């Protein structure tokens, strides 16, 4: 089997295990910390604040990630970053407010180098003909993390109004072991030569310091291009909706007391449904990669936008406005709130997210292949800025205001992505026409 394709599979499984640990923790963190505070009132750590610190640090260090990867290479960067995810989960065994936020900041640094390294490594293992397939396969494997982790949490949280110490310790211990397994997978990745050119106008850098300096400068120059500025609006939207479905929507269900006799169980099921949507979307676009390459990425992004709009409308009618904060007996327009609607919306959130992210990965790994490290770093920078902002306002804005922000940025982001995709199609047609004309000229001269 092709070593590059094997690397894509190993990469997907490594991220699946690491993020089975982290995404499951992110989904239950708010609820878990509330239970810890109930047992120990001196503990004042907040789940939304922790996640905001993670993504704020993530955003800041994305600018330095290309330079770090110039020193270490993407494989080492991903292993080091994955270790910070493991440490973050371990700290929940030793509840401390200052340790929670320190681990969150450290995780943000690790996330920057992990995701930038992942984007660069995926581009190295792909070309224009298989980048859509590889992106879909990676995304499907990654999002299995939402399925397996939340299925475990669902069974452990059954019939529990309060998450007791024994249950917390078991969940955290298992998630730690799974994260370690992911680190081991990433450590087995095989070397693949670099297929990018950071700056063709400069002579090849001779030292690691030169490589780091050029990588940083190239990322800044790329950020100011028209296409990247337009794509940044789509990146921002993925950050807002990422924070919503990964850290806000699950607790909102768990805090809505009238949705079920045991709403904490529904929270776990919602996480599973998000994962099913993500895996279904990633698998579908991996299987249909040849067709999406032919017809373009814009139809899938438009479909993702419409799917998310339907989900937001249903959530607006189903959950009360104060659901993100704490246990509430309030209702929205549906009385009582419908469990099946909450789970359907979770599936739609995952499916729509897969539509956006697989096509963004495909575009960055295809259109921006000559500077894949900088392109993926800018994607994760912009996305994590939006996620950090979202988690900060999630502690203060009601559910309806958050949904309104998602609708506005979703509309703008989808439109901007389509503009860039149409421009890329036009350039591809022009280049194909030029090649045909040159070939015809050479043929006429030969005759």
Automatic annotation (TrEMBL):
Q: Tell me where it resides.
A: Membrane
| CDD domains registered for this protein in UniProt | MFS_MFSD11
Task: Reply yes or no: does the keyword Nucleotide-binding apply.
Answer: no
Q: Which InterPro entries match?
A: Ion_channel_UNC-93 (IPR010291), MFS_trans_sf (IPR036259), UNC-93-like_regulator (IPR051617)
* Gene Ontology CC annotation, any one: membrane
What SUPFAM superfamilies does the database record attribute to this sequence? MFS general substrate transporter
Primary residence? membrane
UniProt-listed Gene3D superfamilies: MFS general substrate transporter like domains (1.20.1250.20)
Q: Which UniProt keywords apply?
A: Glycoprotein, Membrane, Transmembrane, Transmembrane helix
> Membrane-spanning residues where?
7-28, 48-65, 77-94, 100-117, 137-157, 169-189, 228-246, 266-288, 300-319, 339-361, 373-393, 399-420
Q: How does it sit in the membrane?
A: Multi-pass membrane protein
- Stored PANTHER family: ET TRANSLATION PRODUCT-RELATED, UNC93-LIKE PROTEIN MFSD11
Family, as annotated: Belongs to the unc-93 family.
Name by which UniProt lists this protein: UNC93-like protein MFSD11
What is the originating organism of this protein? Musca domestica
Q: Could you tell me the gene encoding this protein?
A: LOC101888651
């Amino acid at each position: 089997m092709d070593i590059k394709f094997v690397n894509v599979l190993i990469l997907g499984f490594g991220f699946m295990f690491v993020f089975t640990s982290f995404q499951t923790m992110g989904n239950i963190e708010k609820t878990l910390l509330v239970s810890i505070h109930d047992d120990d009132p001196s503990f004042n750590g907040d789940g939304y604040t922790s996640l905001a610190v993670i993504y704020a640090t993530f955003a800041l260090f994305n600018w330095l990630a290309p330079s770090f990867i110039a020193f270490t290479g993407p494989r080492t960067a991903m292993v080091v970053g994955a270790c910070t995810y493991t440490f973050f989960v371990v700290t929940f065994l030793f509840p401390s407010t200052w340790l929670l936020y320190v681990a969150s900041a450290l995780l943000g640094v690790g996330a920057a180098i992990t995701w930038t390294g992942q984007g660069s490594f995926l581009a190295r293992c792909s070309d224009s003909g298989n980048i859509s397939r590889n992106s879909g396969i990676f995304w499907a494997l990654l999002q299995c993390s939402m399925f397996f982790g939340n299925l475990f949490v669902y069974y452990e949280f059954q019939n529990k109004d309060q998450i007791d110490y024994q249950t917390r310790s078991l969940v955290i211990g298992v998630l730690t072991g799974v994260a370690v397994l992911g680190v081991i997978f990433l450590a087995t990745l095989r070397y693949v030569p670099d297929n990018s050119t950071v700056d063709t106008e400069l002579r090849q850098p001779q030292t690691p310091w030169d490589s780091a300096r050029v990588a940083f400068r190239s990322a800044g120059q790329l950020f100011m291009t028209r296409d990247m500025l337009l794509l940044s609006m789509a990146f921002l939207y993925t950050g807002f909706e990422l924070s919503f479905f990964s850290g806000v929507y699950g607790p909102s269900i768990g805090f809505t007391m009238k949705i079920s006799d045991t709403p904490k169980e529904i929270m776990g099921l919602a996480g599973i449904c998000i994962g099913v949507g993500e895996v279904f979307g990633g698998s579908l676009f991996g299987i249909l990669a040849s067709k999406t390459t032919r017809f373009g990425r814009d139809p899938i992004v438009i479909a993702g936008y419409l799917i998310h709009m339907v989900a937001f409308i249903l959530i607006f009618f189903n959950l009360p406005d104060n659901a993100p904060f704490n246990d509430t007996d309030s209702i929205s327009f549906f009385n009582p709130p419908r469990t099946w609607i909450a789970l359907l919306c979770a599936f739609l959130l995952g499916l729509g997210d897969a539509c956006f992210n697989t096509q963004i990965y495909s575009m960055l790994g295809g259109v921006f292949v000559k500077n894949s490290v900088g392109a993926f770093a800018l994607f994760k920078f912009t996305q994590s800025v939006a996620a950090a902002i979202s988690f900060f306002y999630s502690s203060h804005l009601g559910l309806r205001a958050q949904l309104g922000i998602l609708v506005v940025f979703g509309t703008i982001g989808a439109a901007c992505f389509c503009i860039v995709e149409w421009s890329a199609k036009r350039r591809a047609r022009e280049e194909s026409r030029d090649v045909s004309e040159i070939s015809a000229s050479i043929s006429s001269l030969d005759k």
